[in-house]
Write a structure and sequence with these properties.
With 153 residues, this protein is α/β, with parallel strands linked by helices. It has 6 helices and 5 strands, in the order E-H-E-H-E-H-E-H-E-H-H. Strands 2-1-3-5-4 form a 5-stranded parallel β-sheet, with helices on both faces. Helix 2 packs across helix 3. It is globular and about 40 Å long.
Length: 153
Amino acid sequence: MSALLIASDHAGFGLKEKLRKYLEQKGMEVKDLGTYSKERCDYPEYAYKLAKGIASGEYKRGILACKSGIGDSIVANKVPGVRAALCYNLKATKLSREHNDSNVLVLGSAFVKTDLAKRMVNVWLNTKFLGGRHLRRVKQISQIEQKIRRCAK
C-alpha cells in the first residue's frame, strides 16, 4: 500500500499522534500534514490540505481527526474525488469501504478512543470495495461532482 496521509486539528492531535505511531510501527509510510501540537488551530486548513492530497491522486487514502469529526468530514467532502466517511464504530467503518469506497476515514476524538480507533483503522485499511451495485452509486457521486464543477464555471 502507498503512503497514507494523516492530519488533525488541536482536538484530534492526541489521537492522530497515537495512530501515526501505531501505523509506522506496523511498517506503513505515513505523511503527517499537521497540526503538530495541541495549540488551538482551525480544522478546515488541515482537512483541506489532506483532501487535496487525496483528490490529486498522489495519495490513495487519508485519516482525519478532530473533536467530533463533523467539521473535518464537511470540509473533506467539499473536494471533488474525496469520499470522507465519519465513522464511530467498526460496522460503519467496514461499510464505508465496502459500499462507498471511502478514501478518507474521519474520526471524532471525543467519541472514539485510541483502542477502538486502531481497530477501526485496521478494518478500514483491510476492507475492499465490493463494486457491483455499489460501483454504480460511487460513479453517480462522481457524476454529481462533475455537474457541480460545470455549474461553478
